[in-house]
Design brief:
Layout lengths: L4 E3 L5 H11 L1 H4 L1 E5 L1 H9 L6 E5 L6 H9 L4 E5 L1 H8 L7 E6 L12 E4 L5 H13 L4 E4 L9 H7 L7 E3 L4 H7 L3 E5 L5 E2 L9 E5 L8 H6 L2 E4 L11 H19 L1
Length: 260
């Protein structure tokens, strides 16, 4: 690793560029990975890192020192602790972050299970859904307009490295995407759908997941082949969207395991 560049001023042009990256990664074409786990997972997956960012206090931590050895050829920047916190957005960051190129939107047909997100706005929910999709063996996740950006720092933190095993498409016309998906399309609705546990989920499924408050757009519900509802205890209105998605994906996984 070449001698690291030290930044102590908010007026430094490199710091300003990093701030812009944290605020709007898609416009910059790069994402900011914050924390030991995310940076280590990215490197372990063989994904190129453009730059490593260290806080003054974090650079001596054993975990970070070990990580630096694995990325010895990557350009390194050391920031004053207060500047690092400003980029991280966390009160007590771990002390390491990395800049990576956002992968291009994947090409080719959609095969197998797919998750379509309709205006899921909360970054924590989007990240949790991505993490669940990866854990359930789903590869393709499509985000429509109005969703939290997949490569924003909060979504990346909530995803815990799931991004690196997924094919993620953003700002997609969901109706058009649904028209070319080969699996059985299932609209998840809070009520008046078929019980999730009465459905045959052993084949490829296209899951449509809606906004935290308004649910799925009516035209997407109408276009789906099936409407599914998760049975809940009496007096319970609904599940959090990320929790509901996890129930759906792992019910499909359970059925397939049982079928095998």
């Amino acid at each position: 690793m070449s001698d690291p560049h030290y930044i102590s001023s908010r007026h430094n042009p490199v710091f300003k560029a990093l701030r812009a990256l944290a605020d709007d990664p898609r416009r910059q074409g790069r994402a900011l990975l914050d924390g030991v786990h995310l940076v280590a997972t990215c490197i372990a997956c063989g994904i190129g890192v453009r730059q490593l960012l260290l806080s003054e206090s974090g650079r001596q931590q054993p975990e970070i020192v070990a990580l630096l050895r694995r990325a010895a050829d990557v350009d390194c920047v050391i920031l004053r602790d207060s500047l690092f916190r400003e980029i991280s957005g966390l009160g007590t960051p771990t002390g390491i972050a990395a800049v990576m190129d956002i992968p291009p939107a994947p090409a080719g047909a959609l095969a197998g299970d797919v998750v379509l997100l309709d205006a899921v706005q909360d970054a924590g929910n989007v990240g949790a859904i991505l993490r669940t999709a990866a854990a359930a063996g789903v590869r393709d996740v499509i985000l429509g307009p109005g969703c939290a950006g997949a490569w924003t720092p909060r979504v990346l933190r909530a995803g815990q490295g799931a991004h690196f095993s997924l094919a993620i498409r953003e700002q997609v016309d969901l109706a058009a995407a649904l028209a070319v998906c080969a699996g059985t399309s299932i609209a998840t609705v809070a009520r008046d759908g078929v019980s999730l546990y009465d459905l045959d989920l052993t084949g490829p499924i296209v899951w449509l997941v809606g906004n935290e408050g308004a649910g799925l757009a009516p035209e997407l519900v109408a276009a789906a082949k099936v409407r599914a509802t998760i049975p809940l205890a009496s007096g319970t209105e609904s599940l959090n969207v990320a929790a509901a998605t996890a129930v759906c994906l792992f019910e499909a996984s359970r059925q397939r395991s049982k079928d095998r």
